[in-house]
Amino acid sequence: MINEYIKNAGIAQLNEMQVKMQEVYQKNDAILLLSPTGSGKTLAFLLPLCADVVKNGSKALILSPSRELSQQIFEVLRSLKSGIKATLLCGGHSTAEEEKRLREKPSIVIGTPGRVLDHIRRQTFAASTINTWVVDEFDKALEMGFSSEMQSINDSLTSVDKRIFVSATSSVDITPWTGEKPVETLDFTTETPNDNLKLMRVTSPEKDKLPTLQGLVTTFNNESTIVFCNFRDTVERVANALEKDGHDVVVYHGKLEQKDRERALFMFASGCSAILVTTDLAARGLDISQVKHVVHFEMPNTLETFTHRNGRTARQTASGTAYVMIYREFSLPDFLPKKLEEYKFEPTDAVMKSEFTPVYISRGKKEKISRGDVAGFVIKTAELAKEDVGMIMLYDHYSHVAIRSDKAFAAIKKLDGAKIKGGKAKVEIAK
User: Fold this and answer.
1) Sign of the CA dihedral 259, 261, 266, 272?
2) Which residues lie across from 358 on neighbouring strands?
3) CA quadruple 127, 128, 130, 136: dihedral sign
4) What would the DSSP string read from start to end of 276-320?
5) Fewer CB within 10 Å, N- or C-terminus of the chain?
6) Could you give the CA distance from residue 406 to residue 363 in angstroms, rounded to a whole number?
7) pLDDT of residue 179
8) In angstroms, rounded to a whole number, what is the distance separating the alpha carbons of residues 227 and 295?
9) Who's near 361: CB < 8 A, 6+ residues apart?
């Protein structure tokens, strides 16, 4: 069964942590999984959990601290093609729609603490039916202030006989959440450092590091880049400057509306934008492959956050580089080596431009639209080749698709107003 899931997800081989999790899952009722960012923790707990649901008819609740991570877990679950009925409870969906899905009695519920607790209190979610409780990014959930919500949820889970807590750091205490049960800990955080990650110093001659950053990105050969800042205002300032230089840039931070956050992540993950400028909101819980460069425009206050930021690149077997930007008169933070190799570069005239354009289609999952439907609609109606169509992302009532930029505008003219699965669709550049 698990081998079939692995094949469906297109995974060639599980890593040691994922294999060990399967063994531990069968023998323990309280598990703490500690493993670095990007190591595949979601797949590690989903594989045995799905097998348990199918074999034993158990029901599971998976909590995560953010909408984005909840959605990511949901998508990984879908990729396994297990046939398990699951639903998502988080912002961006109406509670009425969620209530309707809960009445269908899903076997797996995935959601954020606030939204899940809201359904429990309104008695639209029967927490007493849950047998397995998983909390992903447990330490982050506590850090974000969800302790009281999770405690209330924990008190409602009267039939739970298995608890799994997942974290990228070892500084967590799950004793209050497991009672007297012994805890089996899988700690992969002490593994050898990621040899695929290269750490470099970039010294700015001026206190305002923005001109140095503007020169730095011109050396990145149009490769996917995340620029981390500490404040939303800095994110906007940096992004505006890079946009004026002609780069394709998208911003991501907590002040954005949910739809704008979804669009930003799609833009970057699909290659419609070469640079993501963000706060630490993007440091955890996002699984965006093939990020080549991480730039610390502003340094975080802790090693933990620094590590999570770096975890956006050099994931699995890929390589990547993290750049620490420091004004020449400042010292490196105490949690970094006193000496880092200097990245010496000469700015060029190169511009970070994307090959794809994001396109909005006004029909989504609620209209029973699948990725295959979108791909077929775009390729057939717009007369495109398969390689002209990139990532497709489905939402409740709309979809995003990446179309090669030199074909996008002509394609939109053919697609707008055409029918997809029996209904006319409005098609335009995603805004």
Assistant:
1) positive
2) 402
3) positive
4) EEE-GGGSSS---TT--EEEESS--SSHHHHHHHHTTSS-TT--E
5) C
6) 24
7) 72
8) 5
9) 374, 377, 398, 399, 400, 401, 415, 420, 425, 426, 427
What is the reported pTM? 0.73
For residues 96, 99, 100, 105, the Cα torsion angle rounded to the nearest 10 degrees is 170
Distance CA 218, CA 351 (A): 6
Q: How many residues does the chain have?
A: 431
Cβ burial, residue 333 (10 Å; 0-12/13-18/19+): middle
CA distance 306 to 37: 11
* Degrees to nearest 5, angle at CA 144 with 326 and 38: 60
**pLDDT tens digit sequence for 124-178:** 999 999 999 999 999 888 888 899 999 999 999 999 999 999 988 777 778 778 7
For the record, the structure tokens of 162 come out as 């298995």
First-last CA distance in the chain: 42
Contact 297, 213 (CB under 8 A): yes
